Amino acid sequence: MVIPIFDPADPRLHPYRSVRERDLVGRAGRFIAEGEVVLRTLVTQSRFAVESLCLVEAQARRLEGLVASLPPQVPTYVVPRAVLDGVAGFPIHRGILGIARRGPEQTAAELLARLPQHALVVGLLGLANHDNVGGVFRNAAAFGADAILLDRTSCDPLYRKAIRVSVGASLTVPFARAGEAGSIVDALEAAGFQVLALSPAGCTP
Fold this sequence. Notes:
Strand content: 15-25%
Radius of gyration: 19 Å
CATH architecture of the largest domain: 2-Layer Sandwich
CATH class of the largest domain: Alpha Beta
Number of domains: 2
Order of helices and strands: EHEHEHHEHEHEHEHEH
Largest sheet: 5 strands, mixed
Mean pLDDT: 89
Low-confidence stretches: none
């Protein structure tokens, strides 16, 4: 369902409005995917439901096959670059955006129960930088980690910048929140995992 739009005030573009500001306050169960690699991962490999795409005209022509693979009820809005820049609030040089729904969050215990008998799980504690969270997800995918657990203070893996830095890995590597650091350790031990800890501060004798 390809829909050309030429008016930046069109209400169908509202979910894409003011990308930077709205990322900070949340999107009512939605998140933004940005760039071709991330969008292809979202459409073809992720567990998240795509709500719509918004592409500049040149990118829509180039990604015609990907657009055609979407369910028929998912709209693709095709806009001039000036319209997308105006809606997003700053120039989106890739001209490729998508909206997807987060869906229900699973608990750490639910996630761990679904893993194979021999699995590798990464735990993130107090990681307050979106670039770092995205980098961990990218490396976790590269080294075959089965899941990631985050404490409540770590950044959102579905923040637009974290997804981009992860090159889409935060859309494919399963993750869950587990509260405090002790809750992550407890959940892993209860599921039979051996827990190993690393710290950037090292340790003293």
